[in-house]
Amino acid sequence: MKVVVIGAGAAGLMCAGGLAEAGHDVVLIEKNDRVGRKLFITGKGRCNLTNACDARAFFENVVTNPKFLNSAIYGFTPSDCMQFFESLDVKLKVERGDRVFPVSDKSNDIVKALERYALKNGVQLQLNEKAEEIVVRDAVVRAVKTDKGEYLCDVAVIATGGITYPVTGSTGDGYLMAQKLGHRIVAPVAALVPLIAKGVEGLQGLSLRNVGATVFSGDKKSRSHFGEMLFTHTGVSGPIILTLSSELGKICGKNTILPKGSYLSVDLKPALDLQTLDARIQREISAAPKATVKTMLYTMMPKSLAPKVLESCGIQEDTKASAVTKKQRELLAATVKDLRFPLIGKEKADLGIITQGGVDVAQINPKDMQSKLIKGLYFAGEVADVDAYTGGFNLQIAFSTAKAVVRSLSS
Ligand SMILES: Cc1cc2nc3c(=O)[nH]c(=O)nc-3n(C[C@H](O)[C@H](O)[C@H](O)COP(=O)(O)OP(=O)(O)OC[C@H]3O[C@@H](n4cnc5c(N)ncnc54)[C@H](O)[C@@H]3O)c2cc1C
């Protein structure tokens, strides 16, 4: 069959290479001057390409439409993905949290391996060319029009990604092409995105480990997440904050601004209950009664955070530890477990790692990723309304959905 794959990102490269390997005549259209620009910046340049977890854990990490992904993920599992890249001579390693990276720590090794895989199998790669329209007659794909011409085809695969980090080429073109053909688009918003917060002055760059974070908004509360976070010049980021950002839809819907009065509560000592924490503070006071309460706190938290904690509970920094009253001590313990930062909302979409929203999966067949409206039209990767937490899950989704297309057209 004649196939046109639109977008040479993670999903498009995998899909084009696999379809060409299966004997199809494949054209891969990419509007950038090179393939895999987003893939290149993944995992801070190291590319966390999948997660070596079991299926149950995998689906727990999918935020939107996990059931839809069932057959794609079981059809091409994280372990299949690892074997695939190792068969392309990319050595892999598994790090903390089952995150999988190339041993070289170079995302370019993944990009190049996929590009070689596609070209070796005979994919015709068209760089610097933008797909503009999918030509359909009688609800069947006939051709793909680009800014340079037209490709007649039996199959078109939209693998154009989402809307975040648009400099990489993901500018939402696929949504427009799908919408024009009658598909519903669930409004795309950025997820896995830093949050804008107040009260972070002087904390920029500070990274906290083993803390808990929860968002409160009116009578709504997010789940609490535990791990690492960091302060930026506009608010908060880091793994647990990015995870929280993916769940904010339950609080603010498609809005990127949170309702007034929303705040982030940071638990600096999640392993200690209030009573144990109070006993710990009492021990610190007894050990250094003449120290100021601020210095005393240095044993319990990073130095730059102590003034913020004291300000939040209204205790003067230079108060002698021995002069701290029982009430102040209890207030201090409560603040250490519930340090609040007023939240404004999500950072702009450009900074999101993933897009929430996209082509409504109710109009896509989960077995082969074919449109239920147009014969010969397929979707692969982030363009569909699926997204997951950080940890390699999103790239695995891109690879698995691409492979679902390949399997269905190979039998
Ligand atoms: C900073 C950052 C770090 C990330 N790190 C990780 C990580 O470590 N692990 C992980 O699992 N996920 C990570 N992600 C998410 C991951 O990159 C995406 O989930 C994945 O790239 C989606 O793949 P895709 O092929 O669907 O889309 P993309 O990779 O975005 O590829 C889409 C391609 O389509 C092209 N295109 C778009 N429109 C057109 C058009 N009209 N004509 C022709 N070409 C077009 C684009 O130029 C682009 O090359 C990260 C994302 C970001 C932004």
Description of the molecule:
The protein has 14 helices and 22 strands. With 411 residues, it is α+β, with helices and mostly antiparallel strands. It folds into 2 domains: 2-191 and 355-408, 3-Layer(bba) Sandwich (FAD/NAD(P)-binding domain), CATH 3.50.50; 194-346, rRNA adenine dimethylase, C-terminal domain (Helicase, Ruva Protein, domain 3). A 6-stranded antiparallel barrel has the order 13-17-16-14-18-19. Strands 7-2-1-11-21 form a 5-stranded parallel β-sheet, with helices on one face. A hairpin with a 3-residue loop joins strand 16 and strand 17 (235-237). Helix 10 (274-287) crosses helix 13 and helix 12 (306-313) packs across helix 13 (326-337). It is elongated. It starts with a strand and ends with a helix. The model has no long low-confidence stretch (mean pLDDT 96). The structure holds flavin-adenine dinucleotide.
